Fold this protein.
Amino acid sequence: MRVGILTGGGDCPGLNAVIRAAVRAVEVEHGGEVVGFHDSWRGVLEDRWEALDIERCRGILPRGGTILGTSRDQPYQEADGAQRVAEAVERHRLDAIVAIGGEGSMGVVKDLHRDGIPVIGVPKTIDNDIAETEMTFGFQTAVQICADAIDRLHTTAESHDRVLVVEVMGRHVGHIAVWAGIAGGATLTLVPEDPFDVEDVCRRLLARHRRGRWASIVVVAEGAVPVEGTMELPKLEVNRWGHEVLGGIGDVLAGEINARTGIESRTTVLGHVQRGGTPVAFDRVLGTRFGVAAVDAVADRAYGKMVALQNDRIVRVAVEDAVGHLKVVSPELLRTRAVFHAPDPTAQPPG
Ligand code: F6P
């Protein structure tokens, strides 16, 4: 067996666990070899790669990032891109390429499969928004980093009786924000799934702070959206892959809270800290399970499949079922978050 492997899109703790597990499974279970392409599909197109074996993978399990490097480049950006991927498969005599990536990368896996190229998808993202899998590795690590930060912010917020706004990642969905908000005991958690009214946010904070020195933590996902017409957000830059560069909502929100309530408010943007460093044990295990399962899929010639976690079992799903829509936060989790929100002083008592 000969397998190509690459990591695409934003990095994520646990990528090296997948690489290590796939290499191990190919070598030990199939006596095969692994070609590791550098910088995602860019390495496939430009034939930049290295041979991966058990020796090369020693010590990488707890390491964040990816030993292969990553990029957001993909074959369909170039007219002959798919053709060049097919040539790389030929040249390296690969049974398949295992592509570890997010929603965008899974879309590429879908298209390459349609074009007859043997590919298997492994879902990754700290955002945990890929459909058809209950969890992606990297997410639990990101949540732990946020919860640890919020614990620290509580004590300084209390000393100064401030509102501290914590901006976390979450481009289209609020999984990180909701988990971090619940785990960190946030006063309010604002997510893309549930547009917020800044006036309502301020009313709740003001009522809470009027009752004494009760500092507040407001967790806001970078992709959270204000109710239309309630709060202006600055226009976002678009990067060379056509993605909006998010970030900044925390500052705008803290400014509004300051101006509307008079309570001193500051912002902490956790940013790429959430994506760096060593993966927590759960992410190492999930990445390892995905890596082994991806090699099993290559052995079974189950091309066009994505490995996934469902009911605590690793399964294969058709990659086209996983793209085109995102996994949003469940209504149950949104409600659990809201139970802990500072109460709205104007709300009527139940009954
Ligand atoms: O897709 C994961 C993610 O972490 C998003 O939450 C975030 O908007 C994006 O990546 C930022 O990635 P980069 O800074 O690498 O472009």
Notes: The two ends are 67 Å apart (CA to CA). The pocket of 6-O-phosphono-beta-D-fructofuranose is lined by residues 10, 102, 125-127, 169-171, 222, 246, 275 (CB under 6 Å).
